[in-house]
Amino acid sequence: MDIKTAYRHFRQWQLNPFVAEFRSQDSKHCVNCGHDFVGNFCPYCSQESDLGRITWRSVGKSIAEVWGMHNRSLLYSILQLFLRPGYFMSDYIRGKRQVSFPPVKMLAIIALMGVIVDFLTGAIHGMIKNEKTERFDYISSVFSWLNQHLFGAFPPPSDYLSNVFNWLNTHPDVLSLVMLSFLIIPNYFIFRFAPRNACHTIPQGFFIQVFSTAAFLILNMFYDITALGWLVFLFAAMLIFCTYKQLFGYGVWGTLWRVILSFVCAFISLSIMLNINYGFHLLREGKDDNASGVFFYVPIALVFLVVFLFVGYVISGKPQED
C-alpha cells in the first residue's frame, strides 16, 4: 500500500470510523426478554444477539468494562481524541453518543490518572524541574509580563498572586478545566456561522471543552513524565488547530484567526476573574487604593471583550466556507 492510499484510508476513517453492519439477517431469539428480532441487539431490552456461552473471554470483558474497555472503549475514545479530534467531537454533539466513552466520566478518570502521575513524578509538589528551568517560574513570569504590559493588573511581586498560581500549578486538572471553560462563550459567538456545526449551543460547547480538557490533561501527563515542554506546546497548538478546523469546517486562515481571537477573549475573561479576585483580596487587607486601581481595569477589559466578540461575530457573517 502506497502513502497516498494509506492517507486516503486514514482520511476515510477520520470522517467515518464506524460502519455498522448486521451480523446476520436471520431471526434471533432474545434469551433475556424472549422476543424475536433481526439485528445485533434486541430492540426491546438492548441485549447483544451473539452473547454465547460464558468463557474466559467473558470474564476478561467484564473486568475490562470496569475501566471502560468495552464497546465504547476509553482507550479508543482517547485515540479518536488525538487522531480525529474535531470530527470526534462533532459526531458526539450531533447525537452519535455511541462513538465515545461518556465524556464527563472520561474526564474524571483521566484527571484521577493525572493525579497519580503527578504524585509519581513529583509534579504535585511544584511541577517538574529540569536542568534549565522550572515550569512554574516560566508560567509565573509569562503571566506577570502579560498583565504588566497588557493590563497592568497585578503590581509585582505579590505573595497572594504567587499563592494563586502555586495552587493552580499543583492542580493541573482544575487549571485546564477553568482555562478551557472560558472558551465556551467566545466559541459560541465567533464560530456561530461556521460551515459545520453552525449555531451550536452553549451546552454543546460544554462537552467540546470537556473533551478538550481531557486531551490537555493527557498532554500534561506526558509533560510530567518527559519534561519536553516545547514539544508538548507545539503538539498542543497543532491539536487545537486541527480540532477547530475539523469541528467547524473553516479553511486554514479562517480557522487560525478565529482560534486566536477565541483565546484572546478567553484570556481577557480569565484576567477579569483574577482582577476581581485580587481586588477583593486587597479590600480584605485594607488596601483600598490598590484595590481601586485593580478594579479600574475590569470595565476596560469588559469593553475589549465585548468589542472582540462583536467583531468576530460580525466578520463571520452568514454560513459559508472561507
Structure report:
- The chain has helices at 3-15, 56-66, 74-83, 85-93, 103-121, 135-151, 159-169, 172-181, 184-190, 202-226, 229-248, 252-284, 288-316, and strands at 28-29, 36-37.
- It has 322 residues and is an all-alpha fold.
- It has 2 domains: 29-66, no CATH class; 74-316, no CATH class.
- It has a two-stranded antiparallel sheet with strand order 1-2.
- The radius of gyration is 24 Å and the shape is globular.
Write the layout of secondary structure elements.
Layout: H1 3-15, E1 28-29, E2 36-37, H2 56-66, H3 74-83, H4 85-93, H5 103-121, H6 135-151, H7 159-169, H8 172-181, H9 184-190, H10 202-226, H11 229-248, H12 252-284, H13 288-316
Helix pairs in contact: 3-4, 4-11, 5-10, 8-10, 9-10, 9-12, 10-11, 11-12, 12-13
Keywords for this structure?
globular; 13 helices; mainly alpha; 2 strands; 322 residues; single chain; two-stranded antiparallel sheet
Please summarize what this structure is.
The protein is 66% helix and 1% strand.
